[in-house]
Amino acid sequence: MTKHQLFSSRRALAGLSALALASASLLGMSAASAETTLGDINFDETGSITVHKHKHQNESEPVEANPDGSESIATEGLNGVTFTVKKLEFDLTDPTVWDDLADLDPAGLTCGGSGGVVTGTVDGVDGVAEFSSLELGVYLVCETDAPDEVIDRADPFIVTVPYPNQFAGDSAGTWLYDVHVYPKNSTGDNPVKSVGAPSGLELGSTVDFPVEITIPTVGTAGFTGFTVSDDLDARLTPVGDGVESVMVGGSEVDTGNYDVTTSGNEVTVTFTDPEGLNFLATKQGATLTVTFQATVTGVGTIDNTAIVNVNGKDFTSNEVFTSWGDIEITKQDSDNELPLNGAVFEIYPAATPYPTAGAECANVIEAGASALSFGDPGETTFTTSVDGTVVIPGVFVSDSNTIPSSTVRCYVLVETVAPAGYVLPDNPNTAVKVSASATTEVGITLGAEVTINNTKQDVPQLPLTGAQGQLLMVFGGAAVLLTGAGLMVASRRKSASKSE
User: Fold this and answer.
1) Is residue 462 part of a domain?
2) Is there a domain that residue 483 lies in?
3) CB 121 within 8 A of CB 144
4) Where are the alpha helices (DSSP H) in 245-395?
5) What is the b/e burial string over 72-106, where b = at least 16 CB atoms within 10 angstroms of the residue's CB?
6) Number of helices (H) and strands (E), helices first, in the chain?
7) Which helix (H) or strand (E) element contains residue 18?
8) For residues 321 and 104, what is the distance between their CA atoms, to the nearest angstrom?
9) pLDDT at 39
10) Start and end of every Adhesin isopeptide-forming adherence domain (predicted)?
């Protein structure tokens, strides 16, 4: 048998089939591929290797197809995965080479360095990377680069050109010179973060931050690491250990499958090895939801993101926010604008918290609402100091879910006690429009500033010793003088009559 003849069909098929199947799901080729009936290898031919890069599929839809490329793959191809092909120093015209190929371990080989010739590197498009015009031989295929969404890269694998096709189909029992292979990747999607409604409208309320991620499909490879972390803003304080719940598919996860740790304000859920990682491996494709919980302790727009790390690869969530603002009330005399001490206020949610664009807040309280209560045991009243001011420490404005385009929220201030010597306004309700406080170079701006005037009490009139009394006394004195003058004139006239 010459070197251009088949050395041993049985030997080649046994060795190469086992090798190819173990290394890379060598499956597939186009209908136009060159085929030769098993028996002779034409060493004057050239061949090709076409790499089809697809995501891991579930058990009902595995990534498998014939190596002649005649079958299509339903799942999405991965773009941007780079492959390098290296021709190894094996002479397929030597019958003894075929004997050794089945024992060749690709894990001990590299596409770099010596021991072969790199024939090309291809950046896959639409999940396909094609290496054409290859000399017949033994090739090492390496995945050398991949986009960020790829969690684990395919292991290096070996392909012979030609390849003895033992799979069913029209090309079964033939030598394939154009070989199609289907290595798989695990990919991860960025987690989705949301923000729950606060437990109350006042500072000191708690807020939930759920993080959802689809557990990647990694096949039998499993997970080497899986963490979900949330680095909370300084204006958020973790409640307890900072984790309200961990759920998969809507069911609570046993706490033995994960640990919760905190470092400063960073809270991390780490799935244990091996229990937690094995648990996740049984839930591939399901939704994992980790809900972080924190108390709001400061005002402003508080941003929040989460990071999920799978097998050493970080995936960052979208950004959410919750915003809060404080209110400064100034109480003054309506006549002279002097500050007034001792005015007492309560604050209530408005019946219309988010008015239409351009509309003002109304001073109507939400039906059945109670005064907001701050702190423990719960402060509901705020009293102006000697400078006439009092600050309500912070109220909820909005978040990523609650009309995120709205930058203000309406509240109603109710004056319950006027300063001594002053009267309550006819309508003690004052509408106030609150925006998120902001940090500037000179400090933190207020969410709202409102000035409320008071008028003095009516008091009993004093005795008539003022200007009006003096005027009456002048009139009275003048009358007395006039009367006296009249009497004098009359007396003189009478005396004059007698003397005549």
Assistant:
1) no
2) no
3) yes
4) 275-281
5) ebebeebeebbbbbbbbebebeeeebbeebbebeb
6) 4, 34
7) helix 9-24
8) 55
9) 65
10) 203-322
What is the structure's pLDDT at 476?
59
- CA-to-CA separations, 56 to 276, 450, 454, in angstroms, rounded: 21, 60, 72
Terminal CA-to-CA distance of the chain, rounded, Å? Answer: 190
What is the H or E stretch that residue 492 is in?
helix 467-499
Residue 465 lies in a domain: no
- How far apart CA 13 and CA 98 sit, in angstroms, is 9
Q: What is the pLDDT of residues 308-321, one digit of tens each?
A: 999 988 999 999 99
Same domain for 245 and 115? no
257 contacts 272 by C-beta, under 8 angstroms: yes
DSSP 164-221: E--SSSTTTTEEESEEEE--EEEE-PPPEE--PPPSSSBTT-EEEEEEEEEPP--GGG
User: What is the spatial distance between Cα 224 and Cα 433, in angstroms, rounded to a whole number?
Assistant: 52
113: domain range?
9-186
Phi, psi of 427 (to 5 degrees): -120, 105
Does pLDDT of 146 surpass 90?
A: no
Residues 236 and 364 in one domain: no
d(CA 174, CA 165): 6
CB-count exposure of residue 428 (10 Å: 0-12, 13-18, 19+): middle
| pLDDT-derived band at 35, boundaries 50, 70, 90 | very low
- Domain harbouring 261, CATH code: 2.60.40.740
- CA neighbours within 13 Å on the CB side: how many for 46? 6
User: 165 lies in a domain?
Assistant: yes
Count of structural domains within the chain = 3
pLDDT digits (tens, 9 = 90+) for 96-124: 888 888 788 887 788 877 767 776 666 66
In terms of phi and psi (left: phi > 0; alpha: psi -120 to 50; beta: otherwise), the region of 312 is left
Same-domain status, 414 and 343 = yes
**How do beta strands 448-456 and 320-333 pair?**
parallel
62 and 197 co-located in one domain: no
- Sheet of strand 46-52, all strands in order from the earlier edge strand to the far edge: 128-135, 46-52, 178-181
Q: Are residues 312 and 277 in the same domain?
A: yes
